[in-house]
Amino acid sequence: MSDDNKKNLDKGKINIELDEAVAEGTYSNLAIINHSVSEFVVDFVNIMPGRPKSKVKSRIILTPQHAKRLLKALGDNIQRFEKAHGEIKDYDKAPVPLNFGPTGQA
């Protein structure tokens, strides 16, 4: 296959690399979202019971256009998930307080 044909086949494709550390992911049970005129900032936090303080584990900064695309993509994926696995239950309040009880000891 000629180089020109290969280039035409690759048009419209994005080459994305995922290194091992990022592939492991980071657990988050809280997202804090703020915005300005030019950007949306999403801070992902992991709050654990009995811990008085938590740290932001990851921060994603998006343009308003990308934030809107993310909202649509999440909505589409949630619809597909619920079609396959049933409705995701939503709580008005968290069923258990996030900072309940004393810190555990071993």
Q: Outline of this structure?
A:
By secondary structure, the protein is an alpha+beta fold.
Structural account:
With 106 residues, the protein is α+β, with helices and mostly antiparallel strands. 32% of the residues lie in helices and 18% in strands. It contains three helices and three strands; from the N terminus they run ααβββα. A hairpin with a 4-residue loop joins β1 and β2. The mean pLDDT is 86.
**Rg of Cα set:** 20 Å
Name the average pLDDT: 86
**What percentage of the residues does DSSP assign to strands (E)?**
15-25%
Q: How do the strands line up in the largest sheet?
A: 1-2-3
What is the count of β-strands?
A: 3
The level of helicity is 25-40%
* Bulk shape: extended
Low-confidence stretches: none
Kindly name the structural category: alpha+beta
Jot down its keywords.
32% helix; single chain; 18% strand; 3 strands; alpha+beta; 106 residues; three-stranded antiparallel β-sheet
